[in-house]
Amino acid sequence: MVELHMPTDCPKLVDLNLRDLKLKILHLGITPNLEKLSVWDCTDMVELTFPAEFPKLVNLELRNLKLTTLYLGITPNLETLRLSDCIDMVELHFTAECPKLATLHINDNAKLRTLDLGQTPNLESLCLEYCYDLEEINAPAECLKKLLHLHISNCGRFTHFAFDKALDLPEVVSLSELRLIAYNTGICDPGNTWPEFLFTCYYNENPDSSFGNLERLISLGFSARINVDSFSDIICGLQCLRKLTLLGGIPEAPKNLDWLDCLEELSLLSTDIKTLPDSICLLKNLKSLELDSCLLLEKLPVDIGRLECLESLILSKCTLLQDFPNSICEMKRLKYLELTHCIRVEKLPEEIGRLEGLKELNILGSGISHLPYSLYGLRGLDIIGDIWLLELCGLTPMRQSNDFDDEMVCDI
Questions:
Q1: What is the pLDDT of residues 56-79, one digit of tens each?
Q2: Which residue among 244, 273, 302 closes a domain?
């Protein structure tokens, strides 16, 4: 059997399951009560024709077919659509709104080029895997408001994108967080100053909110070109973000960081950033700033001390960093300061003793060979450093900070 043409009217057909057949063509007639349709491993099927309307269809699963195009008719009750291993499918069309579609999973549809979610206003779970040719996702913010789970793997620029609106985790109720890892592919468009990147993205969002951030982040993987301006617009346009981590070979920091007015934690890890934008100094709610293994970073903004709420400043393995601005002494709430393995930082500001709230200073492996006199007036301060430095400065090491013999802690 290579063709199956259903009768004009099948009023009692509720469940149709076709598997491992040699069908090339399937024409479904009028099936007003069909609720579930499953077509699996009909590897020769090149044509699947639906009736204009599937009024009661709830579940549709197509796997391992040779279809190149799929047109969904009117499916007002469709809740689940799963398409997998249809490696020749180039087009998927929702010809009418699917108001009840909650689950859309598309896996191993390598040639699918575009996906329009404008007709799926109540989508809750979206999974896209190994759609290598996917170039565009139209995902209006209003169609993602109810999305609880998003998983993208090996599509566009995304090696992985994970989003879970964890309704049952109280610790994330007030936290919107982005962790973005950039991989430099070594390919550069002649008209672009930025190299081509692949991204891994982890995003959490306040369960009670929908800020339109997903639409922005999805565009990172599928827009025509990413450069410093578009990257900055996407990242700095995220609403109500409280924690941001950027990791990998990003050559420039987002320019308009001051737009992230809710940001409390910022981490830049193993980036290729040479300087930080002055806009970082306007993050009035920032409590933690971490710069780790930013090997090309040469200096901090002169006005970094304007971060009046900062409690933790971590600078680790920033081996080209030299300048340590005096304005750091304006950070009245700073409790923790780390300069580990910043080998070119040779001195601290003489007025660092103005940081009356400072509880721990870690200068292990830095280029510092002298401690300012004002530092000795900070009672209760723990200083972590090389034993030779602490003894040179007249401090008595009290204990080892870990298992390394040359790393000690002293109390003032």
A1: 999 999 999 999 999 988 999 999
A2: 273
Q: Is the separation of the CB atoms in 292 and 270 below 8 Å?
A: yes
What's the pLDDT at 221? 93
C-beta contacts of 36-42 below 8 A and 24+ residues apart = 36/60, 37/61, 38/62, 39/63, 39/65, 40/64, 42/18
Let me know if residue 280 belongs to a domain: no
For residue 159, the 8-state DSSP code is: E
What CATH number has the domain bearing residue 110? 3.80.10.10
123 lies in the same domain as 188: no
Helices (H), 179-309: 213-222, 228-236
CB neighbours (10 Å) of residue 399? 9
Note the pLDDT tens digit of each residue in 140-177. Answer: 888 888 999 999 999 999 999 999 875 545 554 457 89
B/e letters for 168-197, b = 16+ CB within 10 Å, e = fewer, are eeeebeebbbbbbbbbbeeeeeeeeebbeb
Same domain for 176 and 117: no
Q: Is residue 172 part of a domain?
A: yes
CA nearest to 244, candidates 223, 264, 225, 215: 264
DSSP 8-state assignment for residue 122: T
Q: How many domains does the chain have?
A: 2
Bridge partners, residue 267, by sequence: 245, 290
CB atoms within 10 A of CB 261: 13
> CA torsion sign, 362 to 368 to 372 to 373?
positive
| pLDDT tens digits for range 82-105 | 999 999 999 999 989 999 999 999
Domain range for 268 is: 157-273
